[in-house]
Amino acid sequence: MPIDLEARRTQLQKLEKEISRNLDSSETEARDTAPLEEVRDNTDDAVADEERDAQYIRGTRNYEKLIEVQEALKRIDAGTYGKCEACGREISAKRLDALPETKFCIEHARQHDPETAAATL
User: Fold this and answer.
1) Checking phi first, is residue 120 left (phi over 0); if not, alpha (psi -120 to 50) or beta?
2) What is the pLDDT of residues 65-113, one digit of tens each?
3) Are 12 and 40 contained in the same domain?
4) Nearest one of 63, 64, 49, 66 to 13, comparing CA atoms
């Protein structure tokens, strides 16, 4: 069955907005969680450092996912959405349902991003 590109476009646009909102709220949260200077010790500093690191990692992952979603939208416009960038074969509908922003079939995803490939079909 052929891919419903308009439904995919709508799905990706919603995902793009959601990720953008998450990025905005993460930035606000990072600014708002600055530790108070009144009563602090090494443990407070360590916890604050860990939280900042976690926020940075979440923000980086969200930003990378946003780029992937935007690239998928460009592939829809270019007429290449749903085709593996490595081999040109069709990406399975099941895989696109799980990861609509994917650019690789499962075989090539294992080579390019084993962690993500293991999580999806």
Assistant:
1) beta
2) 999 999 999 999 999 999 999 999 999 999 999 999 999 999 999 887 7
3) yes
4) 66
Alpha carbon 10 to its chain's center: 16
Cβ atoms of 101 and 68 closer than 8 Å: yes
- What is the band of 119 on the pLDDT scale with cuts at 50, 70, 90? low
Calculate mean pLDDT across residues 41-66: 82
Same domain, 2 and 49: yes
* Residue-level pLDDT at 115: 66
**Cβ 71 vs Cβ 101: under 8 Å:** yes
Cα–Cα distance measured from residue 41 to residue 51, given in angstroms and rounded to the nearest whole number: 16
How many domains are there within the chain? 2
DSSP 47: H
Instruction: Look up residue 58 and give its amino acid.
Output: R
> What is the C-alpha separation between 59 and 49, in angstroms, rounded?
15
Q: Hey, which residues does 90 pair with through a beta bridge?
A: 83
